[in-house]
Amino acid sequence: MEHEHVRDVDPAVADALEGEVDRQRESLQMIASENHVSEAVLDAQGSALTNKYAEGYPGSRYYGGCEFADEVEQHAIDRAQELFGADHINVQPHSGTQANQAVYFAMLEPGDKILSLDLTHGGHLSHGHPANFVGQLYDVEQYEVDAETGYLDYEGLAEHAEEFEPDIIVSGYSAYPREIEWGRIQAAADSVDALHLADIAHITGLVAAGVHDSPVGIADFVTGSTHKTIRAGRGGIVMCDEEYADDIDAAVFPGGQGGPLMHNIAGKAVGFKEALAPEFEDYAEQTVANAKALGERLVENGFSLVSGGTDNHLVLVDLRESHPDTSGGNAEEALEDAGIVLNGNTVPGETRSAFDPSGIRVGTPALTTRGFDEDDCRTVADLITRVIDTPDDEAVLAEVREDVESLCDANPLYE
Ligand SMILES: Cc1ncc(COP(=O)(O)O)c(C=O)c1O
């Protein structure tokens, strides 16, 4: 077979792929769930393993020719084990959502009860929102953060658990800027004999690096996405005690998925190896330091942050007090025009809607990967402020865009 590049076969897609690399290079990716994987992870995910069917698990497949698939998957498992220390690890979920679904499918019957954080308070669709099948198949109630402080209301959660008697409590969040006290949630689960699923999708890298406490060894199940703070490429992961291993494996395949995406599992193996290197701890620490610096400067500039600050890789800005006429959606649009890409986000006590929320979620994982430090992040906070102060001023947006380009040039990506 002659080696043809995408450009030889499909110039339209080649243009779009190049456009995407340029977009990532020339603008600031501040969506808190995104990151830039290494070229090694890109290579692995773009490898010939995409051709391979490997239904089953290493050493026990339903297809022949799996010796290299086995090697790759075993490397991914072993490295994840070194990073997280869980008894049993399944690296096949195609995404964080499917990792969560595998846990529900393994442990619950339709109609069983899930207690999870409200979406507008920082939860995730896969934790039981009615728009996800999980919300339709199970009986879901939701806990909240404290309206005053923005911190998780652990006592309220425990009381809610006493009343509702859930079969499983879900912790771990999409837009919660504070460290999570896993032990307090476990205590609430224990008091009503519920299982506990800790979804560390966002903070997988912070946990792997030891920058945040791990729920492994506390919660019954720990799930995550592998493309966020841990930078191991697209996918999901489930970790559990040995007693649940067979049920979880069966729920991932054949319960919820077909053939594993072996090329993505290769990406996970390579990304996990990178995360085992000492530099990854520096990266995770810098990601948090950057978010703190960014948040502090935003507060100095007059913004209000949910919970007043951050312990992790993101800040959640509530625009209602400082910019009552600007929604998160307006801010997102103006910032994108200026080269700063993030998302409008609901805030606790939301008074607008999920489609036109009152806040923005601002993350530092991708900027930190490309070399940004606290000073750079303070500069970015000032640029964000300029845009949100005058979202309709084209001249300001153009000036900010120039400053963004200078920051990008000083911190090159995929050279
Ligand atoms: C807490 C949480 N869980 C699960 C997911 C789903 O991850 P994925 O997009 O990999 O399905 C996300 C995505 O952002 C998340 O924030």
UniProtKB/TrEMBL annotation:
What's the top EC group for this one? transferase
Domain Serine hydroxymethyltransferase-like positions: 7-384
| One cellular component term from this protein's GO annotations in UniProt | cytoplasm
Q: Where in the cell is it found?
A: Cytoplasm
- What cofactor is this protein dependent on? pyridoxal 5'-phosphate
Reported EC number(s) for this entry are 2.1.2.1
- According to the UniProt entry, which residues carry N6-(pyridoxal phosphate)lysine? 228
An example Pfam family from this entry, by short name, is SHMT
For this UniProt record, the keywords arranged alphabetically read as follows: Amino-acid biosynthesis, Cytoplasm, Methyltransferase, One-carbon metabolism, Pyridoxal phosphate, Transferase
Residues annotated to bind (6S)-5,6,7,8-tetrahydrofolate: 119, 123-125, 242, 353-355
Classification via PANTHER family = SERINE HYDROXYMETHYLTRANSFERASE, SERINE HYDROXYMETHYLTRANSFERASE 1
The record's comment on protein family reads:
Belongs to the SHMT family.
* Quaternary structure note: Homodimer.
Instruction: Kindly provide the name given to this protein in its UniProt entry.
Output: Serine hydroxymethyltransferase
Source organism = Natronorubrum thiooxidans
